[in-house]
Specification:
The complex is a heterodimer of chains A (663) and B (147). Chain A is α+β, with helices and mostly antiparallel strands. Among the domains of chain A are: 165 residues, no CATH class; 92 residues; 99 residues. In chain A, strands 3, 4, 5, 6, 7 and 8 form a six-stranded antiparallel β-sheet that branches. In chain A, a hairpin with a 2-residue loop joins strand 9 and strand 10. The longest helix of chain A is centred in the middle third of the chain and has 33 residues. Chain A is globular and about 80 Å long. Chain B is of the alpha+beta class. Chain B is 31% helix and 32% strand. Chain B has three helices and seven strands. In chain B, strands 2-4-5-7-6 form a five-stranded mixed β-barrel. Classes of the chains: A alpha+beta (663), B alpha+beta (147). Chains A and B meet through helix 12, strand 1, helix 13, strand 2 and strand 8 of A and helix 1, strand 1 and helix 3 of B.
């Protein structure tokens, strides 16, 4: 009964979606208010029905209803509740349902919070949003129905892939999808603007909060995925340049570019056509990411099943939306009005540089991801494009971008003074030089490039602080004035500073962990000692411990630093009987911003066990930096200007103050 | 600066960055990609020693020998030809005789791969795609038999 209810709710959502795809557009065309207003109601109702459908699937999983095929294949009655819940999206069908749930959340969000949007624009945005939703409803209903029943209910489920039995599954996919799908709003706004044939600075102000929210979720989602891979795959890597990771990195790069170009559009009414294009491209990359992950073109832990019909269906969605979007762009964009002028050396110019490097870096990632697929389709030759490729292409572009980063916020709009900015950044140069020297002295020749990377990271951090210090007049005016100015500074300015600082923090972590990490891979017998980077680990012994749906082999190590015990580490291996599979649970010990990382290998016949021990200095900064970046985004999102909405042409500005006070 | 000049500057800058990126991509594609070969390819192609390649196939039954200091030797087979692999380190949890494996490293002599990376499949249900293709090429793949 419950699964059928869920299925039916999804069909109803599709029906509503089809209405919402057509009626508001007609209404906007005919200036019919009633038809346009319909979009808001249907968007909310769509959300209601998809939520109902999702809830039905959750109930099936939580109550272990194995008569439902996906539950049987991906769940187990002995699994802890949290994994029963998160295994809802730990498979292809359920994850697509999560995708449309989030899509409908954003649709309902526009319907609810889009009160300050012009009625026609809102109607068109919601209609376009509904096109996307309908495509995915159809995809689910026709190729990946999560509510399919088995003719005879099995007694026990096949269990969730043990690699996915981790708290990470509860957080990583929803965050990532919030990011991917969030950019659909930017896409819908772009398409709606192209249909309308009119675009102004206010457009950017309406799109920015949605793009910012999506970007924040994507940033955190990528970081979370990286940390999950780091602790679960057992060899201490935090980024693999795996195609599936690249699939999430590309929308992030394009989305970051979109946020920056939208600033230019909002403040200076320039780069309008480019911003529209970026909005289309960003969501297109999200769709490409979905295609790569969901179609089975790539084999990875993320591809739950390979079914060619699904691949073809997603490819069709991809072609329709990307092709359609770009065609509409090519047709309508030339008609859009050109924006304001600016000199190459100006804030706008710096943001163009930012966009240029971000999109080019994104392009290199796209080439590295798709080239192996294209080559195999072309002549059957199989290649692997790994870290060396991306280090050589993405690396230099990103370094150039980081170098330019502190200059941007310090340059004036319209016409900037590069020399003046360079002078104001002298302190940052100084700090960077000291950092380079200190890194060289500290590392004693481990790497030539890494100290310069550290210098660059400190340059960006100092640059971000100098920008904020300049604006608040720190060290130049009395402290009371500084505080007054600091509170008066737009939140988005704080956001810029904090997010740039966060990126540099992440960079520092990446350099530290990748260059100065140490490792030992040895076989140990009980009572033996292994030492690494000043830490001594003594192997106390092995024992078996039963878990809910697995048995684990736990090794206990006592960690000493300078002879003083500082704790124990207990890495383990879990054997899941239902799937005859083992997973590795690494033990982590955080020391400052570094981490000791210990994971188990095979047990040998002589009673010894292989271990991998790593010391990764600064590694925590990678994820900490991402959190800081996300907070920068949150600060920017809380900026009052974004919530108040742009002044509408033809309305009396006198109405504004009352509205602001209400906020 | 008028609109035309400004546009030319922007186009110039874009082309500059794109040219640099293209140069980087092309040089990286020449130097840093690794070709995948099945054991039969290795036997037939006469690759130069020292070439960096990736191979895939099944770990041959009875071929795994473990030595001191986590050294391990095993044969990878596609049913038609074998290639010996030497590796030092910890093999993945799902590394087993008769199961699919992918190894990457440098070719030594004619028929030995000194691997620095050994990957096994992620899940008991799926075989690495490269392994499936290698087995198919050698005619040793039975549809559905691996499930």
């Amino acid at each position: 009964m419950i699964p059928e209810l869920g299925h039916y709710a999804l069909v109803l959502a599709l029906a509503l979606g089809l209405i919402q795809s057509v009626v508001p557009i007609v209404g906007a065309h005919k200036h019919d208010d009633a038809l346009m207003r319909l979009a808001s109601s249907t968007a909310l109702m769509q959300f209601g029905f998809v939520a109902l459908s999702f809830a039905a699937l959750v109930i099936c999983y939580v109550t272990s209803d194995f008569s439902v095929a996906t539950v049987f294949e991906n769940s187990h009655s002995m699994m802890p509740l949290v994994y029963k819940f998160s295994s809802v999206w730990g498979n292809h069908e359920g994850s697509m349902l999560l995708w449309v749930l989030i899509l409908s959340v954003f649709g309902a969000g526009v319907a609810t919070f889009g009160g300050n949007l012009p009625a026609a624009l809102k109607a068109r945005v919601l209609a376009v949003q509904s096109w996307i939703a309908c495509a995915f409803y159809l995809f689910i209903l026709l190729t990946s129905n999560p509510f399919l029943r088995l003719p005879r209910a099995p007694f026990e489920g096949r269990d969730l892939n043990p690699i996915l039995q981790d708290p990470g599954l509860a957080i990583h996919p929803p965050l990532l999808y919030l990011g991917y799908v969030g950019f659909s709003i930017a896409f819908s706004f772009a398409i709606a603007a192209l249909i309308e044939g009119r675009i102004d600075a206010a457009w950017a102000r309406w799109v920015r909060p949605w793009a910012l929210a999506a970007w924040m979720c994507l940033t955190l989602g990528i970081a979370m995925g990286s940390y999950w891979a780091y602790y679960t795959l057992g060899w201490g890597g935090f980024w693999f340049w795996d195609p599936v990771e690249n699939a999430s990195l590309m929308p992030w790069l394009a989305g970051t570019a979109l946020l920056h170009s939208a600033v230019v559009m909002e403040k200076r009414d320039a780069l309008k056509i480019w911003t529209i294009l970026l909005a289309i491209v960003t969501f297109s990359l999200s769709l490409i990411g979905t295609f790569l992950v969901r179609s089975g073109v790539l084999t990875s832990v993320h591809s739950f099943a390979n079914d060619p019909t699904r691949g073809v269906f997603i490819l069709a969605i991809l072609v329709a939306f990307i092709g359609g979007g770009l065609t509409l762009f090519a047709w309508r964009a030339p008609a859009l009005k050109q924006g304001g002028l600016f000199a190459p050396i100006s804030r706008e110019g710096a943001l163009v540089i930012n966009n240029l490097f971000l999109t080019t870096a994104c392009l290199t990632v796209l080439i590295g991801t798709l080239y192996p697929l294209a080559l195999e389709a072309w002549n059957g030759e199989k290649i692997s494009v790994g870290a060396p490729f991306f280090n050589l292409t993405f690396g230099p572009l990103f370094i150039a971008l980081m170098f330019a980063m502190p200059f941007g916020p310090l340059l004036a709009w319209k016409r900037g003074d590069l020399l003046g900015v360079a002078q104001r950044l002298m302190a940052a140069f100084g700090i960077a030089l000291v950092a380079v020297a200190a890194a060289f002295a500290g590392e004693s020749g481990a790497s030539v490039l890494a100290p310069f990377g550290v210098g660059l990271a400190f340059f960006v951090m100092a640059g971000a602080l100098i920008d904020l210090a300049e604006r608040t007049g720190l060290f130049r005016v009395p402290l009371a004035t500084v505080i007054k100015r600091a509170t008066g500074l737009p939140r988005s300015t704080w956001g810029t500073g904090v997010a740039h600082f966060g990126l540099a923090v992440s960079m520092l972590g990446i350099i530290g962990a990748a260059t100065w990490g140490t490792e030992r891979i040895v076989a140990l017998k009980p009572a033996q000692i292994v030492s690494l980077s000043g830490y001594e680990l003594s192997f106390d012994g092995l024992m078996q411990r039963p878990g809910p749906n697995y048995t684990s082999l736990v090794a206990t190590f006592t960690v000493r630093s300078g002879g003083v015990p500082i704790g124990t580490m207990t890495p383990s291996k879990r054997t899941f009987t239902s799937r005859a599979m083992t997973t590795n649970e690494a033990a982590l010990m955080t020391r400052g911003t570094g981490q000791l990382y210990l994971s188990l290998g095979d047990t040998n016949s002589d009673g010894s066990i292989a271990i991998r021990l790593y010391y990764k200095p600064l590694v925590m900064l990678i994820w900490l930096g991402a959190v800081v970046m996300m907070m920068g985004g949150a600060l920017s999102l809380s900026d009052r200007r974004l919530r108040v909405g742009a002044p509408k042409p033809g309305k009396k500005p006198a109405a504004k103050p009352a509205l602001q006070a209400a906020e | 600066m008028n609109r035309k000049q400004r546009r030319l500057t922007m186009i110039g800058a874009s082309l500059g960055v794109l040219a640099i990126a293209a140069a980087l991509v092309l040089s990286a594609l020449r130097d840093s990609i690794v070709f995948f070969n099945s054991p039969t390819d290795v036997a037939e192609k006469h690759l130069a020693p020292g070439t960096r390649i990736r191979i895939g196939g099944l770990v041959k039954e009875g071929s795994v020998q473990r030595g001191d200091d986590l050294r391990i030797k095993f044969d990878v087979t596609d049913g038609k030809s074998d290639i010996a692999v030497r590796y030092q380190g910890i093999v993945p949890d799902l590394f087993r005789e008769g199961q699919g494996v992918v190894a990457e490293g440098k070719l030594e002599g004619g028929k030995t791969l000194v691997a620095d990376t050994v990957l096994a499949k992620h899940d008991e249900r799926y075989m690495p795609k490269e392994v499936v293709d290698a087995l198919k090429k050698a005619g040793r793949w039975q549809e559905g038999a691996s499930k």
